[in-house]
Design brief:
375 residues; mainly alpha; Mitochondrial carrier fold; 17 helices; elongated; Solute carrier family 25 member 3; MCP_dom_sf
């Protein structure tokens, strides 16, 4: 029975050899001395007979003691991953709007907003506590759309590119695979984000321009047309694509390293809660690197969306090396926490919807044989 499971399981580009060990353990658990007598056991046995044995199929998950709601790589899987992206990005970015507002103002007017604490003080004195929430609507809408595309398309491209590479190359070149998949996903995610990001920056950095999204959108369109919403898309790519590449590749490899060197037991033996703790820690580590990599471009975007008629190269030259790093400390705090929470929420959504969550990749048996690591 299990001779047909193993070959099909290896079709997955992130196939791990210990799946076979898990199957051997399942075989012992699923061959009781007596036939099942309970209605639930009979239903489970019946369900196992109805499914195919491909990796990600119902029978595979039933035999492994898992009850996944869909197959890995199915349309439902991608759609629910997109939902996880909406929640993880939309909620977290909206929660840090005050910090983001102060960071943007430090970038566009460093003489007035000298530090993160001074920035909060000046903002509250001028606009009151409510002023810290300026731009929450475009932030929520824009980053929800970005999260939908970022996480949803990342899963699509990761599986697509993994299948193109094949099992062995997908393992050997897995970091490049993560980088390529995340860059491809972010390209489309930034197109979805650009209009709301432009409106958010106008609201946050130009006092008196507009207080709400409803006021900002028609005013921007009347002044510059549709270009007002997309003139920042190229700087967004400069900021977000390196950020996302670091976010996903660093996260994936950090999770792999934590389970290999830090966590005292295999992932399969960890509870869902323990797995989510690992997710949060790996997300925070990835977030710190993300903030550093993307900060110069973030400074350019903030200034560019405030000014009319300027180009990204002009803004970059005017800011200089020192200017593009203004507000880095605030961004590290914001992005580190943000990224950790995003991965935690995203993984929690996967757990809640019972989506397949493949373990960290391990070297395929075929590659072990080629390298002489097995007899």
């Amino acid at each position: 029975m299990f001779s047909s499971v193993a070959p099909l399981a290896r079709l997955n580009p992130f196939y791990a050899p210990h799946f076979q060990l898990a199957q051997d353990g399942v075989r012992k658990r699923t061959e009781p001395a007596e036939a099942p007598t309970s209605r639930r056991s009979l239903a489970a046995a019946s369900a196992a007979e109805e499914y195919s044995c491909a990796y990600g199929s119902g029978r595979f998950f039933v035999l492994c003691g898992l009850e996944y709601s869909c197959e890995y790589g199915s349309l439902k899987f991608y759609a629910l991953c997109g939902v996880g992206g909406v929640l993880s990005c939309g909620l977290t970015h909206t929660a840090v709007v005050p910090l983001d507002l102060v960071k943007c103002r430090m970038q566009v007017d460093p003489q007035k907003y000298k530090s993160i604490f001074n920035g909060f003080s000046v903002t509250i004195n001028e606009d009151g506590v409510r002023g810290l929430a300026k731009g929450w609507a475009p932030t929520f809408i824009g980053y929800s759309m970005q999260g939908l595309c970022k996480f949803g398309f990342y899963e699509v491209f990761k599986i697509l590119y993994g299948n193109m590479l094949g099992e062995e190359n997908a393992y050997l070149w897995r970091t490049s695979l993560y980088l390529a998949a995340s860059a491809s996903a972010e390209f489309f995610a930034d197109i979805a984000l650009a209009p709301m990001e432009a409106a958010k920056v106008r609201i946050q950095t130009q006092p008196g321009y507009a207080n709400t999204l409803r006021e900002a959108v028609p005013k921007m369109f009347g002044e510059e047309g549709i270009w007002a919403f997309y003139k920042g898309v190229a700087p967004l790519w400069m900021r977000q694509i390196p950020y996302t590449m670091m976010k996903f590749a660093c996260f994936e490899r950090t999770v792999e390293a934590l389970y290999k060197y830090v966590v005292p037991k295999p992932r399969s033996e960890c509870t869902k809660g323990e797995q989510l703790v690992v997710t949060f820690v790996a997300g925070y580590i990835a977030g710190v690197f993300c903030a550093i990599v993307s900060h110069p471009a973030d400074s350019v975007v903030s200034v560019l969306n405030k000014e009319k008629g300027s180009s990204a190269s002009q803004v970059l030259m005017r800011l200089g090396f020192k200017g593009v790093w203004k507000g880095l400390f605030a961004r590290i705090i914001m992005i580190g926490t943000l990224t950790a929470l995003q991965w935690f929420i995203y993984d929690s959504v996967k757990v809640y919807f019972r989506l397949p969550r493949p373990p960290p990749p391990e070297m395929p048996e075929s590659l072990k044989k080629k390298l002489g690591l097995t007899e």
